[in-house]
């Protein structure tokens, strides 16, 4: 058996086509979805991510603004800026790029964003709504994972999903999403982490394994059963003298070995990654619909 490759680029492309059509319809009625991204400091990975968000907005017809602030920006000034955008009807979504410089409280920043403009899905009000299964903005990477599963024909309904990792960004929210009594969910979910004992015995029970622990090639072939579906969220840069840059990206899963046992698997890069910004665009358009009381 050699696994089917779940192509995140292709799935993201089809979702973007849907979003682009929706935006065009909204603009024909005088409604333009808007997203503002605020970045503080010069973190290289964040800069790349923010640039890609701007490009995605341009591609889909979403009004976009990027506010680049120096690392020396005070917490007070950042909170005032967020407040300004909270009140600006031009923007339906506000995203503050993480991580922030150490002198700025991430918690205070997330709390300051109007929950109706929290298109990253990190405000405690939206997190609470996600847990109880109410309508809300779902965090982009976990929501993207759900879309990858459903659109690749690997519906989690009735399946045992094992999640490796308990972060607030991926592990916990993806477990919350997939356990809901809802389409694209209804899974039985186990969360494993660094303190889990006898980890391989649990991962071998997984019908669907979601790896999000940030350790390169951690999941080996003997840790999965035949026919498993593997979603690899890891993005690890390792040294590779054979490449032009001297490095390359790999996931948390030993891809070459595990693909020989899996039914389906996501690659790194080109799996979960393209979905994150796409789901951010989807949330922004949804926010515009809510703000303008748009009826499909």
Describe the structure.
Strand 9 and strand 10 form a beta hairpin. The protein is globular. The model has no long low-confidence stretch (mean pLDDT 96). The protein folds into two domains: 85 residues, Leucine Dehydrogenase, chain A, domain 1 (Rossmann fold, 3-Layer(aba) Sandwich); 134 residues, Rossmann fold (3-Layer(aba) Sandwich). A six-stranded parallel beta sheet has the order 1-11-8-7-5-6. Helix 6 crosses helix 7. The longest helix has 21 residues. It has 296 residues and is α/β, with parallel strands linked by helices.
Distance between the termini: 43 Å
User: What's the architecture of the largest domain in CATH terms?
Assistant: 3-Layer(aba) Sandwich
Counting H and I runs of at least 4 residues, what is the number of helices?
10
Uncertain regions: pLDDT < 50 for 5+ in a row? none
Strand content: 15-25%
Could you say how many structural domains there are in total? 2
Summed over residues and divided by their number, the pLDDT gives a mean of 96
For CATH, the homologous superfamily of the largest domain is named as NAD(P)-binding Rossmann-like Domain
Order of helices and strands: EHEHEHEHHHEHEHEEEEHEH
CATH topology label of the largest domain = Rossmann fold
C-alpha Rg (nearest Å): 19 Å
What does the main sheet amount to? 6 strands, parallel
Shape: globular
Q: How are the strands ordered across the major sheet?
A: 1-11-8-7-5-6
Number of strands: 11
Specify the helix fraction band: 25-40%
Structural class: alpha/beta
CATH class descriptor of the largest domain: Alpha Beta
